[in-house]
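Hi everyone, sorry if this is the wrong subforum. Our group has a chain we'd like a structural model of before ordering constructs, and none of us has done structure prediction before. Sequence below.
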Amino acid sequence: MRAFDVNGNVYLATSDLNGAYAFSGANGNAIPTNAYPVRVEFTNFPNWAFSNSGPSNSTNSSSVQFLSSPSCSVNCGAVNPINYSQSNPKVISNIYTNNDPLVSGGSSGANMALISHDYTNNTDYNYTNLANASVVGSVWAKAWNKFKKKMFVSAFLKRHCGFGPLGIGGIYQVDMVNPNSPVVSNFIDVTTLGINLGQSTFPANNAGRGMNGDKWSPNTDHAAFAGVGKYGIGVWIYQMMGIPYFS
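Answer:
Right subforum, don't worry. Here is the predicted structure as C-alpha cells:
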C-alpha cells in the first residue's frame, strides 16, 4: 500500500498473510493527522488476481481511496477466479462398463461413459450423455479450462473396464462451448511423448486382458488385478488460472 498526504509525502505499508496492514508509529510509517486528506493506493496484487483488485461495490472498495481522516476500515479485496462458481454448475460424472468398449457392435461400447447434470439435480435422472464407452473408455481424472470451456479427461486403469481408443495413455477433450451438444475428441496419447506408464509390461489392448464386447460376459482381467495403482495415468486434476496442468 502507498499513501500520499496533502503535502505530497509518500508512506509505504505491506500487508501480512491475513491482509492486515497499518500506517502507524510502531511501523515507522505513521501519517500525521494534520496531513490529511490522504490518497491510499493498493498495489502489487498477486498474479492469480490478474494483478488487480476485485470489483468495486458496497462490500469492496476500489484500489484507490481518499480519506479525510484516519480510519481502520480502509480495505480492498482481490478475486481468485478459480474459486468462482455459478449457483448451479454442471457436474461431470463417470460411468464404467464391463468388458471391451472398442469391439465393433458390442454392447459394452454402447454404454454411457461420461454424463453431465445440474448440481442441484438430486431427485431424478435428468442428465446429458457426453460420451459413450466406445469414445473414451474407462476414464477418471478431469481438468477444466474455464476460458475455452473445454474439459480434459484421462484414461484410468479399472479392473474389468477396457480402455478407449487412445489406450492406457489417453487424454480426451470434451468441448463444452455448447453444453447441450458437447463434442468429444481424442486429445493425446501421452505414451507417444515418451512417458512411461508401464505400457511395455501391460497388455497392449483390451483383448489381451481377456475382454470381449459383451457387457454381460464375465472376465478375470488378471492384469488389472495386480496393476491398479501401478500402471496408467495418476491424478492430474488441478488447474491454474483455468489452464489444466498434467502430471
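For your construct planning: Residues 176 and 182 are 5 Å apart (CA to CA). The two ends are 37 Å apart (CA to CA).
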